[in-house]
Design goal:
By secondary structure, this protein is mainly beta. Helices cover about 15% and strands about 40% of the residues. It is built from three helices and twelve strands, in the order H-E-E-E-E-E-H-E-H-E-E-E-E-E-E. The protein has a seven-stranded antiparallel beta sheet with strand order 3-2-6-9-10-5-4. The protein has a three-stranded antiparallel beta sheet with strand order 1-11-12, with no helix packed on it. The protein has a two-stranded antiparallel ribbon with strand order 7-8.
Amino acid sequence: MLQTFDPQTDSASFRAALGVFTTGVTVITTDSPDGPIGIVANSFASVSLDPPLVLWSPAKSSKRFAYFAGARRFAIHVMAADQRDICAAILESKTAVRSVPTHLSHCGMPIIEGALATFECNLETSHDAGDHVIIIGRVTKAHYTDGHPLTFHGGQYGTFAPHHPPSSE
């Protein structure tokens, strides 16, 4: 059923409409005076190949916002379908990344093992965007592997399975 609404006055319907867009799930990590910090985000996108830029958008209302708004370096991890428990732990606690299998990058960033892709970034710039901030990172190192991604749709986690057309035999 098609629903028409004014997003200025009906934020619940606006959120529901945004939720029909299936996204991947990322965990962003950074180091801080309190140790390694993680945050789960689905607001990740590529920006540019030359120079290599990506973006993500933390909410200003997040208790972890100050850690990431002030971070000069961070790593973005595209989570695999079997890493839902890592996301759940990080959603519960900003310091849960300490109990997740990680290693430190060449510049001391916590890197989550088993992620489908990881982008190590230096802060390029940030832009105020309403109740969020758009953070653009310059990718200094990246790696990826094959696998199925963890997805988010309609407020629920899921997975993506490629569609294989029937063979014409």
